[in-house]
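thought: fold this chain, then report.
action: predict
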Amino acid sequence: MAMKKEIKTLDTSTEEKIKEAARTVFHKKGFAATRTRDIAEEAGINLALLNYYFRSKEKLFNIIILETVTGFVQNMSMVLNDGRTTIEKKVEQIASNYIDFITKEPNIPIFMLSEMRNNASGLAEKLPIKQIVLNSIFFKQHQEAVAKGKITEPDPLHFLMNLLGLTVFPFLAKPLLQTVNGMNDAEFSKMMQERKKLIPVWIKAMMKAK
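observation:
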């Protein structure tokens, strides 16, 4: 009995080790440029063992992208469906949460952008932004604010595109911004922390623009 438990623990540990290695490599290189050998080397195992746990690169990639997208979407969904917060507070939380999230996982925006270009329809199925928005408490709050004249833009997707653009784009443009401004990583991180306060101010101004 103890032996079976030990084997199961070993299997789980090896599987998670492979997934973590795959996550690292896929996030850096994307699907097309990644070889199963790259993942095996990152995990410190032989190729045969990787193939034993995951029969193909495609299967492993589908697991990783689903986990990545789920993490990206869940963060937003929780904020959008919080009935205790106003739209203004939701803007603050989304900006703050995503800046922290991408600071911790800086390769995710480039990874998702790459996969959008290579397989837009497949990623769209895994990233149902429109459904999440239309079924959210945020959507109801937005529609009520539009009806009362507090917000002039009637389409909530424009609202969220502006918010995500202001939050995510600087990470995509980080190499260019650092070159132009001569910033190091610490200075860039400091600037992104400052944007947690600035983005809600800019979005609030957009909401009331005539």
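thought: worth noting. The chain has two domains: 1-55, 61-207.
final: tokens above.
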